[in-house]
Amino acid sequence: MSRLPASIEVAPKQAIESADLPGLLPAGTRVYITDIGTDPADVLTAAARRVHDLGYKPVPHFASRRLTTRAALEDRVKRATSEAGVTDVLVIGGGLDAPAGEFTSTMDVLNTGVFERHGITAMGVAGHPEGSPDFSEHTAIEALREKQAFARRSGIDVRIVTQFGFDADRFADWAEGLKNNGIDLPVHIGVAGPAKIPTLIKYAAMCGVGNSIQFLKKNAMSLTALAVGHSPEEIVSPLERRAARPQSPISHIHVFPFGGLKKSAEWLAERGSLDIKTSAYASA
Predict the structure, then answer these.
(1) Which residues touch 260 (CB under 8 Å, ≥6 apart)?
(2) 179, 180, 225, 183: which is closest to 201 by C-alpha?
(3) Which cofactors are required for activity (predicted)?
(4) Which ranges of the chain have pLDDT less than 70?
(5) Both 60 and 32 in a single domain?
(6) What is the pLDDT of residue 223?
(7) Are 225 and 143 found together in one domain?
(8) Number of continuous H segments (helices) and E segments (strands) in the chain
């Protein structure tokens, strides 16, 4: 069975300071850089620059509702491209109840044209297979249609990157069902890397992934599970079987390294998802 190529994400401070990051991944692997709204542009640019200098493909997050002004957005994108070699980004809603500035949604940010002007050629947008407490499923599908239309008019290679979860069939059903709604963007499925179950429950609660919390709490009743922890193979292997189906939009996995960056990278290398010939930069 063919292995799905993988990307991974890091916090800005981790990108700048981690001694594990050099040589940990094949050259060209997509490394997403998170943005929770607390790091200044200097830090975010430095993080992307180190990821780039280490031979990886930096993918900085742009959390739309956490952005302040159009001028600040323009400056940040310009610096990312000119100082850190960024050509790929992830643009998400940002999850705030009230916007921090001018932008209320991802489309508000995309419609500025800033990414096209500064040479961004690839982009991830958010997918929610388990739904979101912030909007309805209908609203989510309409938003993806708008982002697909943006991809076609801008020429940017847009993909869907999902939240993480633990029900492989549910995630695959959601991805395969997009076609019925007129959406044919490639899908990168979010998965949690190897970690202890209490750690995953904490992050699932922080991210508002309700169904995943129930799944994890049920599994935490097992002493074996508490001792051994979560194995991503329980999710990834079924996803790879579904991805092998004709017309499946699933093309990658995106790893959230809650149990540690090195541990996740070692698991990916062992399973062959970080082979340099098929690493995450090779295709959308």
Answers:
(1) 193, 195
(2) 225
(3) FAD
(4) 1, 133, 199, 201-229, 274-284
(5) yes
(6) 40
(7) no
(8) 12, 8
Residues 74, 90 contacting (CB under 8 angstroms): no
Same-domain status, 176 and 257: yes
> Do residue 106 and residue 140 come from a single domain?
yes
Extended strands (E) in the chain = 6-10, 30-33, 57-63, 88-92, 122-127, 157-164, 187-192, 250-256
The domain of 239 spans 6-195+231-278
- Structure tokens belonging to residue 114: 């800033």
The residue among 22, 75, 87 whose CA lies nearest residue 51 is 22
The pLDDT assigned to 281 comes to: 47
Say if CB 196 and CB 224 are below 8 A apart: no
Indicate whether 207 and 154 sit together in one domain: no
* Helices within the chain (DSSP H only): 12-17, 41-53, 70-84, 106-110, 114-117, 137-154, 168-177, 197-207, 210-220, 223-228, 233-243, 261-271
Neighbouring residues of 32: CB distance < 8 A, sequence distance ≥ 6: 7, 8, 9, 10, 59, 60, 61, 90, 124, 254
How many domains, in total, are found in the chain?
2
**Burial degree of 74 (CB within 10 A; 0-12, 13-18, 19+):** middle
The pLDDT assigned to 211 comes to 56
**Residue 1 in domain:** no
Residue-level pLDDT at 159: 98
The pair of structure tokens assigned to 259 is 């149990």
216 in Cβ contact with 201 (< 8 Å): yes
